[in-house]
Structure formats: structure tokens, C-alpha cells
Structure of Nitronate monooxygenase:
Amino acid sequence: MQTELSSRLGAEHALFGFTPFPAVAAAITRAGGVGVLGAVRYTDPGALRRDLEWLDAQTGGLPYGLDVVMPVERAEGVTEADVEAMIPEEHRRFVRDTLAKHGVPELPAGEDGGWRITGWLESVARTQLDVAFDHPVALLASALGPPPADVVARSHAQGVPVAALAGTARHARRHREAGIDIVVAQGYEAGGHTGEIATMVLTPEVVRAVDPLPVLAAGGIGSGEQLAAALALGAQGGWLGSVWLTTREAGLHARALTRKLLAAGSGDTVRSRALTGKPARQLRTAWTDAWDDAEGPGPLPMPLQGLLVAEANARIQRWEVEPLLGTPVGQIVGSMNSERSVQSVVDELTRGFERAVTRLRRLTGEGG
């Protein structure tokens, strides 16, 4: 399950696993893939430094990456307080009323009010990069388009290739023009921020649009057969995120959330702006329903929405209020039916890949 790209990065498998959990990223890398740690929650550079030092020790020189959220537009001098001041009182009241309706308690005194989605701020993202480039990061990924030109140049100077997610062939061509090395074609089925085009359609469009740049397929990939399909469409690997949420290494503190994920079907997700202000696929809950209701005020644009709901999400998760409890996840959730180790997931992916390749060889007369 190796391609030119995975071989170049020193990975055994063409398997790129995005995750917010360092333990999952390390386990993906140890299992032969490339674990990619999401950095958006690291507003404290010291915390990121500690986790990357831990990753270094756990991966033993095998490749891992870092995923940042960094806008092309510069927003120098903008602080979190500046952004908070833009949030209308109507929306704050809506949050309070929705939480009260479901009886969500306040956080205990002194307990953290949840991570704030401030990784989009240029100042925060650049501190993350200052830390990252002190470590043997094998890949820098940008979740919402290409990073600024000077960041791409800096990454290249460090010998680190840059990947960027794209939801259309047009976006992918812009990534290529911006000097991006790898394009992640993220389809409609994916968890988190997605566009309108399905992976089966998007992947070959992006492959043609940016040739000869390597493309990774994302969205709806949770089995080896699906990974084989992605490679058949011209991708040089799969970018998987949702499938790791129910691994033991993820260790979701809200056990109710794990139960909801394991019980969910492929139709139990929705693209909603409730979490960040941009359309993001997540479990459908009473929380997403409230924000998508035409009777409500509607979500604010990114990053206002993320700042607005940060503490509310922390309270929902802290008290495991099941009607409101959700997480970004793709349609592949319908196949996530048991808690397993990361190694077990990778083993099943490789077995499924081999089964798919064997079937194709038989169809072409190569398998005897």
C-alpha cells in the first residue's frame, strides 16, 4: 500500500491520518502511515512544544505532520478580544437560552472553558510554526487553503513539503499556483469543513487539474477497498480523519460521545455552520438543529461562531448532555461500529486494500 509520495516521505503505507490527538498521530505513524496532528487548539506554544517532543520520542524518526489553520489574508494586530467584541448580544442570548432549555449546568469553578478556535489568527498560527520547525515535521498541512507565500517558502527552506485541502478543482489550481506540493481533495462526505462535491467526482478532477502534483483523497474513506478506489482514481494516498475518533488511543473523555459515534449511521451527519461558522460535517444533534432552525439568529461567520460557542461546547461535553453532544465526523461514521486500536484499524485497511487489488487483478486476468 505504498506510492511514490509515501515512499518519498518514508512511510510504509500511503495512509495519512489527521487527528487532534497526539497519541493517535503517534500510533498512525508507528503503524506505517503518516500521523498528522491538528494544531488549531494549541493557542499555547508551550503545550504544542510538549506534545511535539512527546511525538518525537514516540515515533522514533518515522514521519509525522502538523495541520494548521492559517489564512492567506494578513490580520496583523487583531486579538481575540477584538473578535469577541464583534459578537452580537442576540447570539449570546441564543446560546444561553439553548443551554438553559436542555438544563446544561455551568462549568465547575476554575475549570477551563474549552479550547477557543483561535488558530485562525495569524499571530497564533505563526507561533505554532515557530515551534513546529524546531522538530522533524515531515509534512505541513493547511486546513483552509494555502498558507501565506512566506510560510510556504519557509517550509520549503526547512525541506518540509506543504499540503493544502481543496474542495474544487479551481481551488486546487490556486494551490498549485501558490507553490503547494500536495493537494488534499476533500469531498462532501468528509468530516469537518467540506465543499459540495463528492470524493468520487472530486478526486479525478483535482488529479487532472494539478498534474503532476500528488493528490491525496479525503472523505468517505474508512476501508482498504475505499483506499484502493482512491488510488485507482489517481490519488497517491488517502487522507483519513473520522475513522480514528473511536480508536482506543483517542480516549474521548465523553463516553456518551463514543457511544453516539458507534451507534450512528451514515445518514446521521449534517453539514452545519453551528461549530465554526463555515459548513462543517458533524453529528446531527439538537444543537445543530437549533442553529440551523430558520427561527433562530443563524450562525455567525468564522471565526465569530467558534468563539461564541466554545464555552457552550465545553459545558455540553463536560456534562455529556446527549441531545446536544456531537463532534465533526464524516459519513463513514456508519462503518465505525467498534472501539479498536489504531494498529487494528490500519491492519484492516491493509487487508481490505489487498482484497480489492486481488479482485481487480482477477478482473483484468492478472490473478490467474
Notes: Residues 1-70+119-250 form a domain with the TIM Barrel fold (CATH 3.20.20.70). The chain has two domains: 1-70+119-250, 79-115+252-337.
